[in-house]
Specification:
mainly alpha; about 0% strand
């Protein structure tokens, strides 16, 4: 798991909060849709392998740290008004991807990921765009 390119999460930097979240969720969807991702998810859920459990916690902590980076960048750009915890943003979104991909066996299309991102962004403490009067 540590060595697989498919399990490496990056902190996308598209220049916008929405673009970064779409890119991050797309990476997660691609992992969950790949054979290695389905295998690792099943192994992690089973709880029968202490090594897989340890690797899963390590992977999740690394992923959360990288997600926090993209939220901190958004705050630095003025897109967020305050500090936002990565887990409060990404855990529900990733849960939705698990449901769609692993349980319902549905594809997470780019449109579905964009719609999920838009729902996430609605709940964040964002700055108001400048009004043009």
């Amino acid at each position: 798991m540590r060595e697989s390119r498919q399990t490496r999460f990056t902190a996308p930097d598209t220049g916008s909060l929405r673009g970064d979240i779409v890119a991050a969720l797309t990476e997660v969807a691609e992992l969950l849709s790949a054979p290695v991702g389905r295998y690792l998810a099943a192994a992690a859920i089973s709880g029968e392998n202490p090594e897989i459990d340890s690797l899963t916690r390590e992977f999740a902590a690394d992923r959360t740290g990288r997600e926090q980076i993209l939220l901190d960048r958004a705050r630095d750009r003025g897109e967020l008004t305050e500090q936002v915890d990565a887990r409060s943003v990404f855990d529900p979104a990733i849960g939705a991807l698990w449901l769609r991909i692993l349980l319902l066996r549905e594809e997470a299309t780019s449109g579905a990921i964009a719609a999920l991102t838009d729902r996430i962004i609605l709940g964040l403490p964002r700055t108001e765009p400048a009004r043009r009067d």
